Structure formats: C-alpha cells, structure tokens
Amino acid sequence: MSRDKSSRRASAEQQTLDVSEAQIAVHWPEEDYFLPPASFIAQANLTDQDVFARFSLDKFPECFKEFADLLDWYKYWETTFDASDPPFWRWFVGGTINACYNCVDRHLTAYRNKAAIHFVPEPEDETVQHVTYQELYVRVNEFAAMLRDSCGLKAGDRVTLHMPMVAELPITMLACARLGVIHSQVFSGFSGAACADRILDSESRLLITMDAYWRGGKLIDHKEKADTAFAEAAEKGHQAEKVLIWQRYSGKYSSPTKLVEGRDVIVNEAVKAFRGKRVEPVQMPAEAPLFLMYSSGTTGRPKGCQHSIGGYLAYVAWTSKYIQDIHPEDVYWCMADIGWITGHSYIVYGPLALAASSVVYEGVPVYPDAGRPWRIAENLGVNIFHTSPTAIRALRRSGPDEPAKYNYHFKHMTTVGEPIEPEVWKWYHRSVGKGEAVIVDTWWQTETGGFLCSTVPALHKMKPGSAGPGIPGIHPVIYDDDGNELARGSGKAGNICILNPWPGAFQTIWKAPERYVKTYYGRYCRDPKSKDWRDWPYMAGDGAVDAADGYFRILGRIDDVINVAGHRLGTKEIESAALLVPDVVEAAVVPVADEIKGRVPELYVSLKPGVEASEDIAKRVADSVVERIGSIAKPHRVLIVPDMPKTRSGKIMRRVLASLSNHQDPGDVSTLANPEIVDSLRALVK
Ligand code: 6R9
C-alpha cells in the first residue's frame, strides 16, 4: 500500500488528530508524515486531547501527581515538588513506597498466574521459561531473604550486579528494591576492569554475577570477569565482602573458572535454605535511591547516575502506559539489554509496574539468523516491540525479507538510542511493522530516567527521523551557544534543554554532586543563587532542531555536530543521505581538520553482503549527500569499509573513526565489540 493512500484512508477514518495538530501549530507537508493506524487508536490508553493542556507549563509541578497516582503508596506524599536546593530537586516528599511491591505484590490478586517474564534462551532447543507473577513473588522473596539474613544487607547498601540477560537479573534487582538496597547493574559485555571501577565508586558490599551465558553460539565464561573485578576493586581500595554467583543451568556450575573458597557463593544452592521465606517490603522514602546506572561522559570517569524510587518509578510507569501503550494483557518485548537504562526503565520497572508480560531474551538479534526476533515474536505473541536503530539496520542488512515469513502482529513499535535515518524508519514501519504498527521515536538519556521527546502514539502523526515534541509535562527549548533561546519552530540547530524539572530525572551523580551541577546545569543556569526552577534549564548535551511543526529532530551529541565553514551539519543528516544509496547499509561521518573550512566531513560506509566496493558507489554516495544537503556537506572522502568499529551495545564508535581520519591514536579500543577491525581500517584510511 502506498503511503499516500494509507494516510488518506486513516485521516478519513478518524478525526482525533485535529487538536494535537493545533497544539503543535503547523501546516503539515502531508508526504512527510504517517498516521497511526485506526486499529491502534481504537484501543490506545491515551486518546484524550486534553492531555496537553493538563500538562502545560503553568500546571507544573502538580500535573505530575497523575504520574505518582499510578503507584501504590504506603504513605501519600505531602509535597509534590521541593525546589529548596536547586538543582537537587525532590519529588513526592514525605511519601513512602516500595518499588518491588509495586512491580510484584500488588499484581497478585488480579494477575497471579500471568507471565511476568518470558525468558528466551539463545539455544533454540532450550525451553522458554515463563515466570508468572506468583513465581516472581516467590523467587524475589526467597532471594531477598538470603540477601538480608545471610549477607546482612540493609536499606541504603550498594550492590554491584554484573549479570547477563536472564530472568535472574530482574529477580535480583527486585530483591534489592524490596530491601531498599541500591543496585548498580553493569552491562555484562563490559570487562572485569570496568566492573571494578563501578564496585569501587559505589563501594558495593557484594558483587552478584552469573557463571556463564550464551552469545552468538558460544557459552561465554562470565565468572572469570568477577575475579578480575573483585581483585582490581580491592587493589584500588574497596574490597567487596562476597561474590554471589547465579548458575545459568541450575544445579550445574558452567564455568571453567574456579570458585574462591570463603568468598564465592552459589546462589542456586544457598537460596534453598530460604525456601518459602517471605520478606516484608521495606517502606522507603520516595526520595531514597533505587539504583545507580553508570554512564560515560566526555571525560574518562564514568558517572554514577542516581535514580530515586518514587519519582523514577512514577515516571517510567506513566510513560510505559501512555507512550508505550502497555496494557496488562500485552506481551511486550524490548530488545535492549537490562544493563542499559532502556532495560531498567522499559524491560523491568515500567512494564512490571503495569503488570505486563515482559520478554527477556538471551543472545543477539541476528544469531543464528535474522529470523530469530520474528520467531520469538510469533511464538510468544509479542504485540509491542522496542529496539534501536542499530538493531534495525542490522536486521535490515542481513534479512530484509525475514519479517514477512512470520505470523506476528505488532500494534506498537519503539526506536530509541540514536537518531534513525528516514530510510531505515520506513523499512521498520513497512517490513517489521507490516504497516500495522504505530512507531514512537523516543529521545532520552540515562540521566533522564525515561522518555523526554516522543509523539503520543494515538494523538500525533509520525515523522520519520524526528523524535517529536516533548512528551506531556516535558517542555524542551533550544539555546544557542551564547545562551539565547531560539524561537520555537525556528528550524535552526542548537543545544536542546528542558525548561522544567520532572520526576524521572536523576538526583545527582553518585559522590560527585559538583560534577552533576556543572555538567547539566552549569552552562545555561541564569542565576546560581536562584531558588526558582525556571532559572535552571537542564542541558541534555545533544544538538537538535525544532522544526516548524514543533517536532524535535535530534542531531546527536553536541560533539557530533560537524561545523563546516560555520555551518552546523548533523552527522545524521549526512549519514541518512548516504543510506539512500541502495547498496549502502551503514554510514558514519566524522570531522576531519581542514585548513580552509575548519572541518570537512569524511564518510565511512559499509555495503550489503556480496556487493563489491567501487569508485562508482563512492561517487554515488558523495553525490547523494550533495543532493540531499548541498555541496557544503560534500564528503572529503568516502571510504568503503568491511565493518564499523562498534561498542558492545552496537553503537558505531565515531570517535575511533575520527581519530583514524585525523591520523591520531584511537586510544584504548579493547572495549569494542570488534577491536580487530581497527587495524584494517587504519590501512584503508592511509
Ligand atoms: C536512552 C539512551 C543517550 C543519548 C542521547 C542521544 C542519543 C537517545 C535517541 C537519541 C536520537 C533518539 N539518543 N535516544 N538520539 N534519537 N530517539 O539511549 O540513553 O545510553 O544515555 O544515550 O543517546 O544522543 O543523548 P543513553
């Protein structure tokens, strides 16, 4: 079906978009937009046009009560928002709550026998585990009892988790939350050394890990990293008390790395002593920390972003319900790793707070083949799907026709993590979503807890390549480098900031409050003495354009904007143009120093399997960039490469490419998923 036809039909079928069109005050160039399917709108959680008025800036902060009212509180809060110590905002002050209770116990009456977690092992001959809410309740309680009674953990203690994607990971997080213990989950792909830094910084009492896990056909020894992590942290000044090890196969230790007597504890054995035990959830102040999530900044040291219990949980519950459109009967699959913020907010806490069934899968999207995600979707009846542009590009590259072979139906899909090229968005919409699903492009960060910009799925049109307006309650603004606010809808690039605080925002950087203030509020704070939140816009560190329709298009991190002869070019704009050339599957642009123009873009592209690199393709790529953006953006060179250097989470490491292009040392590349690529790229760049 052509896009034009489908848009026309959908607009005839429903009129509910009128008010939101007014809200974003535009004249829509019809061909740039897609409409949510009428079938989606008919069942959506949020179809009420008044939502924008309810969350206008003059309703701040009381509008956020609606978020917290999705939760069960032991004691209702007295003060919705406390700004007495800017920018250390406090939400729902005086309230007491437990995150585990809200994600587990309160669902038992209505949903006891419903799956909370579907765990899909990588080996396809292994049985999928369906963990019901009742089972989750039992397992979380038993493990919480062990943490409390055998390890002596109490509210406020920190614990580092270095766990792969298994059902035991949410079980561990929830057991910590039940006790008020602060968890800090480190992405399993990170090295033992990276884990050590996080144990040290958080002064964790325990390290909780797993013996092994499957990835790309290999059973990886994971316990080995725990030994490095423990030893390095101890060497640098913090010795954890114990290492708790879950078994990938209960009853069998699947690692060649020896256990350390007196330090290592096999959880599957030790927890047996707590069979049938129940632990009362600890009634925590809303403002107590729920977890730390370390994120990399511009400097080397990772930042421990500290998230609260009440504000965070309220924020992810509301956004899961209204932006992800999760109903309790939905089977929801977010393909991210729980080791990233997306997994915390939108695999564990948001969906479980709403009593959904959330899929946890082991492995990588394209192994053993690019049909795996669609088999999982078909087998489990997944109807909400959530992933990143990188995964979408990989699936499009290795199996563009795979989705059509499987009988699944998504009502809703999300893209998150990087800007998505319109070409890739359209494949996602047409091939993965089969034209039946609404798509939200959600822009946010580790620091922000949950979504900042996105369309409201039943109320806004979708625009490929743009995240959308601020979600209800979020008021973004664009500043230039001198701190001047750009006019709304100016179409000019600048630094995107959020005018108002919101409950999901992180509270501080663990043990580095000055760095928190400086990094996020230093640049645009109007008066450091002011107690008025209006003087403290939050700086996200991303470049963005506010288009005439009020949709924000994220250009990437501020340092990803290439300034060519005084013109700001978004790396993503150039890359999107390159991707229009049919044989190109991935593109990454980096700035190269140039005597005349300051910087010029150099473009790396990889091609579809089987396509030979040629001068002709390189020329077509350069022509496409010039055609889509103008000669100002013309790449200095187009380099056709066998693969891109990537992080373990799949993001292209443009920093490495930029160093190579500028004949600088790329530094430590050992944490890349494919460090071996760097040498062959260096040879190509010469
Ligand atoms: C959630 C997450 C945050 C950075 C952020 C921005 C980029 C995230 C995006 C997006 C364009 C989107 N980003 N979502 N860019 N469109 N929909 O990814 O958190 O890992 O902290 O990364 O990712 O640059 O500043 P995190």
Question: What key attributes describe this structure?
Answer:
22 helices; Ac_CoA_lig; AMP-bd_C_sf; 30 strands; 2 domains; ligase; GMP Synthetase, Chain A, domain 3; 686 residues; binds ligand 6R9; seven-stranded mixed sheet; alpha/beta; 30% helix; eight-stranded mixed sheet; ATP-binding; disordered N terminus; Acetate--CoA ligase; Rossmann fold
Structure description:
- Helix content is 30%, strand content 21%.
- The chain has 686 residues and is an alpha/beta fold.
- It folds into 2 domains: 38-539, ANL, N-terminal domain (Rossmann fold, 3-Layer(aba) Sandwich), CATH 3.40.50; 581-685, ANL, C-terminal domain (GMP Synthetase, Chain A, domain 3).
- The strands form 8 sheets. It has an 8-stranded mixed β-sheet with strand order 12-11-8-6-7-14-15-23, with helices on both faces. The chain has a 7-stranded mixed β-sheet with strand order 5-4-17-16-18-19-20, sandwiched between helices. A 4-stranded antiparallel β-sheet has the order 21-22-24-25.
- Helix 13 (310-322) packs across helix 14.
- It is globular and about 70 Å long.
- The two termini are 47 Å apart.
- The model is unreliable at 1-31 (pLDDT under 50).
- The structure holds ligand 6R9.
- Residues 295, 340-342, 416-419, 441-446, 467, 540-542, 554, 556-557 line the site of ligand 6R9.
